[in-house]
Amino acid sequence: MENKFEVLQLEKTEATCRLCEDFAENALKSKTTAIVGCDGACVQGEIARRIANHLAYNKNPDEYARICLGSAITKDTGQRNLIRNLKNIVVIEGCSVKCGSRLVKAVAPRTDIKVELISSYCDWDKSLFGMNEISHAELEKIATEGADNYYNKRVITAEKSSCCG
Ligand code: SF4
Asked: Fewer CB within 10 Å: N-end or C-end of the chain?
């Protein structure tokens, strides 16, 4: 039978960030929803990152906790605690490779992860790859509209990305 999992060896660290742990401790008591972005380095990943930021910091800061994906995946501390224990979890994915939700599942094996592809909420020039191919102002406009569409449940029909199957 085909093995559908990769087994990785992840170096542990004793290092910690007090500000991050304080944030997580407070968020666990006061917020309902973990907001994760795939945080990719291409245009799609950057749009996902910005949409996650807009949701958590502008749309519903009382309920949404913006998750630091690297910390949640690599350390068993506050951020992981949030993706395991907040009532809801939303992962904004830049493309169908879905790195964010696959990472989350590795440490938070829950069945209620809401996976949201940015192509359902915003449109952009799908021929672009690097962030140097688009202005920050344009990226911000796309992400702001995308966050707005997501928050107001407006799904759009956009041309599919040609880069990810
Ligand atoms: S989901 Fe797509 S855009 Fe996001 S990190 Fe993975 S490959 Fe990059």
From this structure: N
Domain membership of residue 100 as a residue range:
18-151
> 74 in a domain, yes or no?
yes
Pocket test for ligand 1, best of 42, 92, 101 (most atoms within 8 A of CB): 42
Cα 47 to chain centroid distance, Å, stands at 10
Ligand 1, from 47, 91, 99: best to mutate by most atoms within 8 Å of Cβ?
Answer: 99
Nearest CA to ligand 1 atom 7: 97
Residue 7 counted as domain residue: no
Long-range contacts, 4-12 (Cβ 8 Å, 24+): 10/73, 10/74, 12/75
The domain that holds 135 is classified in CATH as: 3.40.50
